Amino acid sequence: MKVIKNYLWNVMYQLLVIVIPLITVHYVTRVLGATGYGINSFTNANTQYFVLFGSIGVSLYGNRQIAYHRDDRKKTSQTFWEIYIMRACTLGLAMIAFYIFMLFTGQYKADYFMQSFLIWAAAFDISWFFMGFENFQVTVVRNMLVKILSLVLIFMFVKTRGDLPTYILILSLSQLAGNLTLWPYLRHYVDMPDWHHLNIWQHLRPSLVLFVPQIATSLYLSLNKTMLGSMVSVASAGFYDNSDKIIKMVLAVVTATGTVMLPHVANAFAHGDKKSVHRYLYMSFDFVSFLSVPLMFGIAAIATAFAPWFFTKSFAEVGKLMMIESIVMLMIAWSNVLGVQYLLPTNRNKPYTFSVTLGAIVNVVLNVPLIMIWKTNGAMWSTVLSEVAVTGYQLWVVRHDIDIPRLFTNLWKYLVAGAVMFVVVYWMNLHFTMGYVMLVVEATVGAVIYAVLILILKPTVLQTAKMFLDRRRNK
């Protein structure tokens, strides 16, 4: 039941992460305009490179290592401090490099300076530690409070197009504040390390192994926005960013399973319980398919009317981008299970790294010609094809470990239910004016249609849900 509790905490947070950006984006795109919002997307993408290189894969590596050793307080304490100090050093170098970069950049200096606090925020991020202990409540509650505070500050201080630096500063400092609030809880889990036996650099090489896929993953978003900003316009980078934000915010409800299951599977693997590892894999894959299919069809169904209503007519192009990008929801859901929930916890870093690197190569190779031909649409198709490559390779890698057909046993049922839902909701999208009420009505109608068809088709996810409910009642 701990997994379910952690998942519900994570979903609660992810729902807040969805709602607050939806509110802020709806407001900010009107205040800052397409160009102002695009500048934020462009400068943020470039800043994230420095955050990424400074973090060197610790989020995944640290999470897994803490899960391995969490039953031994002394080992946990030593491991935490070694990993944290190493990461602080590398982020310090990233900070120096970023300020040197600022000296040579000709545009957006004030905006870049405000973005620099994201690197400071990363230096104090220890959420990976609590995830390793499967304590999601402490991270969720604190981040929820910070998100709400940032929302209030945005409405208070972002009033005109000239408030772009203020908007960026609020986002950056809120992230820093959220990370700082986790530190007081650390004393319940770790003690001071044995300084004489501190060996921080032993973690560098294994962190770098997981750093490669993180670099590759960042290319899907950051590189696309950078190339669009340079080859097309900063407004196009903003269009891409808005589409990606909506898709990834909704998808976060599905990928929350990966955050929860990684330390759980890692701990089972550390204790030699391979049977449980495989059982978790089949259950997670079926569950994310059950969730991601209706989300994919639902986003595609409402996209063309949603974008100009939500972002204003100047962002109408975002609707087409959302329809294209909705495809990645299923691909990312599957690769999240295969990669983050299976390959990483079982210490199969090389195939995971290669899969994500393959996706990055596909993305880079296709980006230039597709952007030249179709501009922003081309960048989005490049993203879709790169995710298909990642998922396809991971399926090929695990083909001898698991029963591949078993993974897709219920998929046809989800696709049939999702397709019927799409037809009805898309018809409503074409014949009714989009607004808050209509958005809720369309979402409700879609959910009811999908739920009814699922009850008729009876996939095994219903049996799994019943099993967990029975266990909860018996406790």
UniProtKB/TrEMBL annotation:
The chain crosses the membrane at residues 7-27, 47-63, 84-106, 140-158, 164-186, 246-266, 287-311, 323-344, 356-374, 380-399, 411-428, 434-457. It is found in: Membrane. It is a multi-pass membrane protein. InterPro entries: Polysacc_synth, PolySynth_Transporter. Pfam families: Polysacc_synt (PF01943). Its main location: membrane. Keywords: Membrane, Transmembrane, Transmembrane helix. One of its GO terms (cellular component) is membrane. This is PST family polysaccharide transporter. It comes from Lactobacillus selangorensis.
